Amino acid sequence: MPNPYGAPEISVLDLKKKLDEAKQNGGQAPLLLDVREPNELLQAAIRTEPVALAPLSLLAKQGVSALPAAAQGKESELVVFCHHGMRSAQVTAWLQQQGWSNVV
Questions:
Q1: CB-based burial of residue 22 (10 Å sphere; 0-12 exposed, 13-18 middle, 19+ buried)?
Q2: Which of 5, 15, 23, 88 could tie 93 with a disulfide, CB 3.0–4.6 Å?
Q3: Nearest CA among 43, 49, 48, 32 for reference residue 88
Q4: What whole-number distance in Å separates Cα of residue 36 and Cα of residue 82?
Q5: DSSP 3-state of 103
Q6: Is the sign of the CA dihedral 42, 44, 50, 56 positive or negative?
């Protein structure tokens, strides 16, 4: 089902392929941007590199300055994720509105 924000999406299989290709070819893997809240990390966390945290609550307060350094470039390849996909879709659409061009 498409998200209500119209944000572009990537399947887990396509993401796995991208990560594997980057690893095999020595290329740059997309940055995985976790927008869940810190307390949610106790329940489940992705331990794959590169993962960066940018909780939605912090983004709402601080805007793009809350993004980690690796996500600051508007051409950075970002894969935003959360628990169910709604917050990540919201952040993806917001980042696109802010000028990020390579975010899903």
A1: middle
A2: 5
A3: 32
A4: 5
A5: strand
A6: negative
pLDDT per residue rounded down to tens, the chain (104 residues): 578 889 999 999 999 999 999 999 999 999 999 999 988 877 877 777 678 999 999 999 999 999 999 999 999 999 999 999 999 999 999 999 999 999 99
**pTM of the model as a whole:** 0.91
The kind and range of the H/E element at 3 are none
DSSP notation for 45-63: ---PSSEEE--HHHHHHHG
Cross-strand partners of 103: 78
Render 10-52 in DSSP notation, one character per residue.
Answer: --HHHHHHHHHHHHHHT-PPPEEEE-S-GGGGGT----PSSEE
**Alpha-carbon span 15 to 10, nearest angstrom:** 7
